């Protein structure tokens, strides 16, 4: 039995250079299993194009992850990298647009800002001896707050030159994404730093035992500070690539990326307690997550399942690290004997448990796939049977004709308004024999919309229909889809006109603005102050409605004044908070106009709990969400259209475009139960908005 005595820094049996660790082998096996499963069940998964697409969509988070690896190996943590991305992005945009600096200089300064921010983290941690978790939690809020302060939460930077956009959207040789070589070079640099330099060995020693490292003569503070400087530098570089990828610089750039990056690092075998880790493991963790997310969408499986599996694996990795990754107190600091044979037995058991989880994950994926295949089979085979809903369905499933695939995206899946739209879309899909894919971000997020659309392009869907969150940020990926021969339409909120064929418009901005302002004026008696709560300060439809509200106010009601405009991010709780803040800051406001569906009940609940009988609420909302507030007299009117009809009309428009029965230049087309629908230019019009009041709201159920 081999033993060691004396003081040691590190593991009792340090891995030899180039040796594959058991955790890495297990993760590699999981990645291979994912590739085999999704290769069998995913559309166009095993293609070179999709492989490079997975790489391209992993670059920004990957840059953060490889830079976080030495930080975590050194016993630290950096929660600020995502927020720093947002700050570096808006600084880069401001330097280019407002300061009129050349793109290379603006990019260099943004990356330099990242390095300085990392230096700030490192100095506060090492000089003031404050735990890294506390320091970076503080700078997490500081950096994001500075970014939002610079832009007022409203401004975003777009119209970057095409040469710069090529960095995030172009392909070298028409195949390799332009940002991939940068990611490869950075990853190689961090591998050399961590595994082939004295700096890397020093960070391992610091992570395992900071005091032992000091006694060994290592400059611990310098090593730790260097790790944070490199982490900040990588955040600045990721911000520049992010802007090139999306075509816009916004304060919310990198939102939530820090958690994904840390997940990749820890899943790759890096000990969250420090002292052990590898860049190769981090890359394996990154690609395991990326392939899982990509494969889920190409296989038509619920995207949420990837989060469940990733979370389970992460908890397992941390649990095993806590249980076996560090020795007992009497051995971990080198005070007693270490039995290397016993250590190897523990590692084997660790591999066995991870392999069991791999098999369980595969079983879950396989079971989900069986369910989806059965659902699709029932839809396609049953369409021509005796239960077929219409002759259109039977025709679509006739021999030699496959049903078209329409990929439809809301701004956010959890919003009640978009849930109602989905019901109408599914009704039309069943009626027409269309294969409908419904997917989108859980919260309004332009970056997530882009990623999902990229997956749909790889899959080769026939039509993409998007409710656009940010028209400038999504234009490039929609144009890419059109270049690949995919029909693109928008609905609910529009993109640039050259990035889609038609816009399925729920109502004209003029009609919505006029109805809202006229209703507000009637309630207020022609004078006073009102406030607006919107979903987003950058959403195209919200902006156009606000413009029309202001035009109507200035034209007909000059005695009425708008006190403030506040966003709620499509969240009811945030709308509640904003309404409370408005009533406190502007006590003379008589009416709150909420122009997104979660904001109407949120504002009404705030008014109710405040006891302010002098404040009324109106807005764009669903009748079922607002009935009780309408009957209580808090909400005087709810203005909307039939959201189920909007989803229904969108699918009909998609099918008609593919069939050739709807073409640019048409002024009408037949849309099932909706009959003949008017087209104004390239806008397909659902109709005029409808006003729900106490007298009629109980007649509606959606």
From TrEMBL:
Compartment(s) where it occurs, according to its Swiss-Prot or TrEMBL record: Cell membrane
Assigned keywords, A-Z: Cell inner membrane, Cell membrane, Membrane, Periplasm, Transmembrane, Transmembrane helix, Transport
Membrane topology annotation: Multi-pass membrane protein
GO molecular function: transmembrane transporter activity
Transmembrane portions of the chain: 25-49, 61-91, 103-126, 133-151, 171-194, 223-247, 259-289, 301-320, 351-372
Free-text function comment from the UniProt entry: Part of the ABC transporter complex LsrABCD involved in autoinducer 2 (AI-2) import. Probably responsible for the translocation of the substrate across the membrane. Part of the ABC transporter complex LsrABCD involved in autoinducer 2 (AI-2) import. Binds AI-2 and delivers it to the LsrC and LsrD permeases.
Positions in coiled-coil regions: none
Quaternary assembly: The complex is composed of two ATP-binding proteins (LsrA), two transmembrane proteins (LsrC and LsrD) and a solute-binding protein (LsrB).
Principal location listed in the UniProt entry: membrane
CDD domains per UniProt: PBP1_LsrB_Quorum_Sensing, TM_PBP1_transp_AraH_like
Entry keyword Lipid biosynthesis: no
The organism's place on the tree of life at top rank: Bacteria
Xref: InterPro entries: ABC_transp_permease, LsrB, Peripla_BP_I, SBP_2_dom
One Gene Ontology term, aspect cellular component: ATP-binding cassette (ABC) transporter complex
Protein name in the entry: Autoinducer 2 import system permease protein LsrD
Residues of the Periplasmic binding protein domain: 406-660
SUPFAM superfamilies: Periplasmic binding protein-like I
């Amino acid at each position: 039995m081999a033993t060691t005595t004396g003081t040691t820094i590190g593991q009792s049996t340090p891995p030899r250079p180039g040796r594959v660790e058991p955790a890495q082998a297990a993760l590699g096996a999981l990645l291979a299993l994912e590739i085999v499963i999704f290769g069998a069940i995913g559309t166009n998964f095993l293609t070179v194009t999709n492989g490079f697409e997975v790489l391209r969509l992993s670059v920004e988070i990957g840059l953060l992850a490889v830079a976080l690896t030495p930080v975590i190996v050194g016993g630290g943590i950096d929660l600020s990298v995502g927020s720093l991305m947002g700050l570096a992005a808006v600084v880069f945009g401001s330097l280019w647009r407002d300061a009129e600096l050349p793109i290379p200089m603006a990019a260099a300064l943004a990356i330099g800002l990242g390095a300085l921010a990392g230096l700030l983290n490192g100095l506060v941690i090492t000089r003031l001896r404050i735990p890294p978790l506390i320091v970076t939690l503080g700078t997490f809020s500081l950096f994001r707050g500075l970014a939002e302060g610079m832009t007022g939460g409203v401004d975003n930077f777009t119209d970057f030159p095409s040469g710069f956009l090529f960095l995030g959207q172009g392909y070298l040789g028409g195949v390799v994404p332009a940002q991939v070589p940068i990611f490869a070079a950075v990853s190689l640099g961090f591998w050399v730093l961590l595994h082939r330099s004295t700096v890397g060995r020093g960070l391992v020693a610091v992570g395992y035992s900071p005091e032992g490292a000091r006694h060994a003569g290592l400059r611990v503070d310098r090593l730790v500070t260097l790790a944070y400087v490199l982490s900040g530098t990588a955040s600045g570089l990721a911000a520049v690539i992010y802007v090139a990828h999306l075509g816009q610089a916004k304060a919310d750039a990198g939102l939530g990326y820090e958690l994904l990056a840390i997940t990749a690092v820890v899943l790759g075998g890096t000990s969250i307690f420090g002292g052990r880790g590898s860049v190769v493991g981090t890359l394996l963790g990154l690609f395991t997550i990326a392939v899982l997310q990509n494969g889920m969408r190409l296989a038509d499986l619920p995207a949420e399942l990837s989060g469940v599996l990733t979370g389970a694996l992460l908890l397992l990795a941390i649990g095993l690290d806590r249980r076996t990754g560090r020795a007992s107190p009497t051995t971990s600091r080198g005070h007693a004997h270490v039995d290397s044979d016993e250590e190897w037995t523990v590692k084997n058991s660790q591999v066995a448990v991870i392999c069991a989880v791999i098999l369980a994950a595969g079983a879950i994926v396989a079971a989900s796939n069986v369910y989806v295949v059965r659902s699709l089979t029932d839809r396609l085979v049953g369409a021509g049977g005796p239960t077929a809903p219409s002759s259109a369905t039977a025709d679509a499933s006739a021999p030699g004709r496959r049903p078209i695939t329409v990929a439809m995206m809301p701004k956010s899946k959890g919003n009640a308004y978009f849930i109602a739209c989905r019901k109408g879309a599914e009704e039309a899909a069943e009626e027409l024999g269309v294969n409908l894919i419904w997917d989108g971000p859980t919260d309004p997020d332009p970056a997530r919309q882009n990623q999902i659309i990229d997956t749909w392009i790889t899959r080769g869907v026939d039509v993409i229909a998007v409710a656009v969150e940010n028209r400038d940020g999504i234009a490039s990926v929609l144009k890419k889809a059109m270049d690949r021969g995919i029909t693109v339409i928008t609905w609910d909120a529009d993109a640039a006109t050259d990035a889609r064929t038609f816009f399925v418009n729920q109502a004209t901005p003029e009609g919505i603005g006029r109805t809202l302002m006229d209703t507000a004026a009637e309630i207020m008696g022609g004078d006073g102050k009102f406030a607006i709560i919107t979903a987003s300060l950058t959403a195209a439809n919200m902006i156009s409605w606000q413009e029309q509200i202001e035009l109507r106010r200035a034209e007909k009601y000059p005695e009425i004044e708008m006190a403030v405009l506040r966003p709620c991010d499509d969240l009811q709780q945030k709308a509640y908070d904003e309404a409370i803040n408005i009533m406190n800051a502007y006590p003379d406001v008589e009416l709150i106009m909420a122009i997104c569906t979660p904001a109407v009940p949120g504002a009404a609940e705030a008014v109710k709990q405040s006891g302010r009988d002098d404040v009324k609420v109106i807005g764009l909302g669903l009748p079922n969400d607002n009935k009780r507030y309408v009957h209580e007299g808090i909400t005087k009117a709810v203005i909307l259209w039939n959201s189920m009809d909007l989803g229904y009309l969108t699918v009909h428009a998609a099918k008609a475009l593919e069939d050739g029965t709807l073409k640019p230049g048409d002024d009408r087309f037949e849309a099932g139960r909706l009959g003949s629908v008017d087209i104004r230019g390239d806008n397909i019009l659902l109709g005029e908005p409808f006003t729900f009041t106490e007298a009629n709201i109980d007649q509606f159920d959606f």
